[in-house]
Write a structure and sequence with these properties.
By secondary structure, the protein is of the alpha+beta class. It has helices at residues 29-37, 44-55, 107-130, 144-160; strands spanning 61-64, 75-79, 84-89, 134-139.
Length: 168
């Protein structure tokens, strides 16, 4: 477990999580309200990173499955020519090592829920990497300008390195 993290680096192999294609039901009406209110796209951190990338002249797909991956999971930002998938992860939902915490109520349910999200993120990273995509994860607390600088630098390096524009 990393400092400040509420979750282990790797979840237990025997973890009996509900089918990853179907999230577990909310543990309470309050939890259901929180999950309904949480946007899946166009969050403020995501918009700030997208605006910063746009100012740097980068053009990208938004809320898209990287072409050729056959994935239901969608990246927040896809730079096709550089074959980069960018995810802007919320600190709570994706268990940021600096800000992760478990709610006081229904702790075990939340632990399983958040571990499942972290496991899904790792699975997505592995599958995209195996398909030749570079996965970049940005925490919501990161400076969007610094994140955009990092993404733009990586995109330029990958474009120079022979990753041609995708036609799919």
């Amino acid at each position: 477990m990393s400092a400040g993290s509420v979750l282990p680096e790797e979840g237990p192999e025997g973890y009996a999580h509900i089918d990853p294609g179907r999230p577990p039901e909310a543990s309470s009406p309050g939890a259901a309200a929180v999950m309904r209110a949480t946007g899946r796209r166009d969050t403020q951190p995501e918009l700030r990173v997208r605006r910063a990338l746009h100012r740097r002249g980068l053009r990208f797909l938004v809320d898209a499955a990287p072409p050729g991956t056959n994935r239901r999971r969608r990246a927040d930002i896809v730079l096709r020519g550089a074959r980069m998938a960018v995810f802007v992860d919320g600190c709570f939902w994706h268990s940021c090592p600096e800000h992760a915490h478990l709610p006081k109520n229904n702790r075990e349910w939340w632990r399983r829920k958040l571990e499942g999200i972290v496991r899904r993120d790792r699975d997505t990273d592995r599958e995209l990497t195996a398909a030749g995509w570079l996965v970049v994860r940005v925490w919501e607390h990161e400076d969007p300008e610094a994140a955009a600088d990092r993404i733009a630098r990586l995109a330029r390096e990958r474009m120079r390195g022979g990753h041609e524009k995708s036609t799919d």
